[in-house]
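Protein folding task:
====================
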Amino acid sequence: MSKPNSDKFWLEPLLLQAFQKLYKNDSYLIEHGEEYFLPEENIDKTIGNKSYHVSERGIVFKFGVYLQEIANCDERLRNYDIDIEYNRKGNDQKKVGAENVCPDLIIHKRGHQEDNLLVIEFKPHWNDERSEDIKKLCGFIEPPYKYENALSVLIGISEPKLDWVSNKTKGKEGQKKLKARDGDNE
């Protein structure tokens, strides 16, 4: 089997299918990130009267489940591993510069650096500061990791915003907003 085309645009429809499933089936995880005040009778004295967000990891996990389902049916991705919070580089810890890092989601082949296809960093709408994520992604497209594609995702309330990061533009490449609409790709 030949190596997948490194062109990021063949990945977009597959990612979009996973986002469609996420927004359709798990909108609760996304929509309940807004901070709101609880009624007096529900106030927990230890945390006050504010609600708290669903974990970003919970959203990334569900996205990963849907992406794995899609990958299992796609010849280009079938032999790749999809992992969340994967912090290994062989037997060592992943580092960008001197900092230990765990990318939110990666598509790769475990155990070596030759087939690192995609690294993704996610931010939910209630925490939309992505500058540190962009720096981290720039580190992942450089040696020793050499990911072919890097993506910063802002999980909006109704749709994701995807920003492809390249070593040429360092995150300033044309931003592409993909709509996660209900579709036929279930």
Notes: The first strand starts at residue 81 and ends at 84. The radius of gyration is 17 Å.
